[in-house]
């Protein structure tokens, strides 16, 4: 399975009054992990945007297990959970320094033309991304 591990140092401004990471900031960390995963496959969101495509989030699931606090370090693990040529689902685990799972989640995405916001098949717009995603899923299934 292709899985990226992205280190995060918890900054003070990411925490709430209770001293733990504010719940919405984990979504930002998901995005950091997802961007790193895509870079690991050899691609960049910026290249997609240069061709007038965007990749909006269409669904999010997130489960909070343990708090992460200011001053701690965390790891965002990211991998491809599902891909059908139109929808891409990334999965995430945020691990505390001691290896405990703090947060799990998934985000679903489609690519859209910037001017219409209509979904567009990845295979047609970005055949190299399509091939890399299919290969990443095949590696996971064969492990």
UniProtKB/TrEMBL annotation:
GO molecular function: fatty acyl-CoA hydrolase activity
Keywords: Hydrolase
Taxonomy, superkingdom: Bacteria
Secretion signal span: none
InterPro entries tied to this protein: 4-hydroxybenzoyl-CoA_TE, HotDog_dom_sf, YbgC/YbaW
Pfam families found in the cross-reference section: 4HBT_2 (PF13279)
Entries under NCBIfam families matching the protein: YbgC/FadM family acyl-CoA thioesterase (TIGR00051)
PANTHER family linked: 4-HYDROXYBENZOYL-COA THIOESTERASE FAMILY MEMBER, NOVEL THIOESTERASE SUPERFAMILY DOMAIN AND SAPOSIN A-TYPE DOMAIN CONTAINING PROTEIN (0610012H03RIK)
Family listed: Belongs to the 4-hydroxybenzoyl-CoA thioesterase family.
Name the record gives this protein: Acyl-CoA thioesterase
Highest classification ranks of the organism: Bacteria, Bacillati, Bacillota, Bacilli, Bacillales
């Amino acid at each position: 399975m292709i899985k990226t591990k992205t280190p995060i140092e918890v900054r003070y401004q990411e925490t709430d009054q209770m001293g733990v990471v504010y719940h919405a900031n984990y979504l930002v960390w998901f995005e950091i992990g997802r961007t790193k995963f895509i870079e690991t496959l050899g691609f960049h969101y910026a290249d997609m945007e240069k061709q007038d495509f965007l990749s909006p989030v269409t669904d999010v699931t997130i489960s909070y297990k343990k708090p992460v606090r200011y001053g701690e370090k965390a790891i965002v693990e990211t991998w491809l959970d599902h891909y059908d040529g139109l929808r891409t689902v990334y999965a995430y685990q945020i691990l505390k320094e001691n290896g405990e799972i703090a947060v799990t989640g998934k985000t679903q995405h489609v690519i859209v033309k910037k001017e219409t916001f209509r979904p567009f098949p990845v295979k047609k717009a970005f055949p190299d991304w399509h091939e890399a995603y299919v290969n990443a899923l095949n590696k996971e299934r064969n492990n």
